[in-house]
Write a structure and sequence with these properties.
homodimer, alpha+beta, eight-stranded mixed sheet, six-stranded mixed sheet
Chain lengths: 378, 378
Amino acid sequence: MNVTDELLVLGAGVIGLTCAWRAAQDGHRVTVLDPAPASGASWVAGGMLAPVTEAWPGEEELLALGVESVRRWPGFAAELGDAAGRPAGLRTDGTLVAATGSGDRAELDALAVHLGRLGRPVERLTGRELRRLEPALGPDVRGGLSVPDDLAVDNRALLAALRGACERAGVLIVTRAAETVLDDGARVLGVRCADGAELAAAAVLVCAGAHSGGLHPALHGLVRPVKGEILRLAMRPGAFPPPRRTVRALVDGRPVYLVPRDDGGLVLGATQAEVGFDTTVTAGGVRDLLRDAERIVPGIAEYALVESAAGLRPGSPDNLPLVGAVGPAGLLVATGHHRNGMLLAPVTGDAVAALLRGHPVPGPVRAADPARLVGTRR
Amino acid sequence: MNVTDELLVLGAGVIGLTCAWRAAQDGHRVTVLDPAPASGASWVAGGMLAPVTEAWPGEEELLALGVESVRRWPGFAAELGDAAGRPAGLRTDGTLVAATGSGDRAELDALAVHLGRLGRPVERLTGRELRRLEPALGPDVRGGLSVPDDLAVDNRALLAALRGACERAGVLIVTRAAETVLDDGARVLGVRCADGAELAAAAVLVCAGAHSGGLHPALHGLVRPVKGEILRLAMRPGAFPPPRRTVRALVDGRPVYLVPRDDGGLVLGATQAEVGFDTTVTAGGVRDLLRDAERIVPGIAEYALVESAAGLRPGSPDNLPLVGAVGPAGLLVATGHHRNGMLLAPVTGDAVAALLRGHPVPGPVRAADPARLVGTRR
């Protein structure tokens, strides 16, 4: 086994790259291993930075974590843009939530009441008021919410910026699959790769998304793949322009979102299915996305369908991510971000940097300590 | 200008390649020019060989032409397979036509009556009888027709076989765009290419599909692009198997078809739009195809969506193709096959071979003489 003193990061998605960049800024020698860097869930993602419109009664810790991270996003994007020499892709136009039928409107009302009780009031709007803000919304939209602080990011611009910043900070990104984290029962020794090679390291950070659970016994059963299908559209000449804001909606109980890109593109997402490690785009998934999105923004019928893809979100048992130490000494984890990897990247990167320094993590990250799940694994 | 005595064929789609192969079999030295061989409408096509289920009152000449060509198909496929050393992709499982609502069933009844009057009776079936033949048909299918003589071909296998047969017969397929056919007012002189080169030839055959109209003034306005969008699906493990037969349907007045492939694939087509030279796949087109096809074969919801594409059918003013001499001496045309290029390839190839020999064309091809359209162009 080669002896090195590097921090090995397993996974070059948004979380792995963010943590690698932050660690390198702190003087660590960082190597990132990924069989296909920046190609997984982070590549497929829609890019919503939307803690408030993702809020759900009973998930107050996740809301607090998301609010803390979205607060960090503008500074993170500016710093990353400078470090990479290219924009991080942040859009600050805010988010609308739209509802069609009465059941969907009742759901939004419950969300608004819930957020009000948490001291985060949101503005309720009629269909007419929503269309005044975004003329692309169709006549079936009967009401909704305005949440200007829920933002969005162009996930592919972000990944490119993170790779650029990592490169400039001296991070080595290696196209290679890690198979398992090695330890002696007390301390991490390194990583064995799928090709049989063993890399020594005293510290290993697992950021392998839905694949994290297979990389060390201490992680088994803590992360599961949650498939999401997504479509990418492009406005065509003569078509009705897309909304400026991110538009989320409930259509007959099914959530759908439309995230605009600076180039006139529009990302439609996302289905949700727990079917193992399957990234097939299904006819039924595409049908659902197009039908539901068209109810909200009818003009997309004339848009070009330029891409369909599926990714695997890393789901955790309680929908909170896993950020902290776990198992043998030297093993850190930052995964399980489920639908919120883009959103939670800044706060996760800062938390991992703090852990590597031996400092306490930012307050809301404490709820993400993997220790909470010991004994709960399935 | 280089002087050659070759037959220049403009267009390497199914018609151009078939004619080139036939001409080479007759001893002609054949060069085919195409900026992107075998990539246009022929590549996108569904591959139905379906004159009867395409029949429409008032288009009896097209029906006769199609019936003549489908009769030639098994021999053509066998000969082509031998010549190419690979299968031509013919499937002989026949075709069902399915209808859902009462309006759609009335349309099919009218088609059945029409075909009966023409002496081509078709079998009418109830929904239950249809499902006995093809269990993949859904409960919304209330009635339809069985047309065992309407066949199908794997268009991409066919193109590969035609290229192979052309190559073995000495046909030169050149990746180069023709710009215009040159003549001296009386006779063809050759072709000027988009790159400025001029190729001399005493005989030029225009098989450039929707692009044919721009290649010589005698063809202006005779062919127009008719856009069609198509999806390719693949069965996944555990999904309900696809039908064996080609299934055509009317769904609330919209035609849709599902053409099975030998590998478990299924081609869904096709939208129809006259929007110029536009091959964008639209969200609305995909939505229509998925929605309508799923009404007929519900199991496709679980299939993988593996490809979406659009092609430009070459439409003619009267829906009959243009096969024959036109304009200056030495200019031949075989285009305007609209939805029927795959179907009409055998009879078109035989007709062009006859024209090159100075023989009469097969009887039903006489109706396709472009002379009929002089004075009708738009």
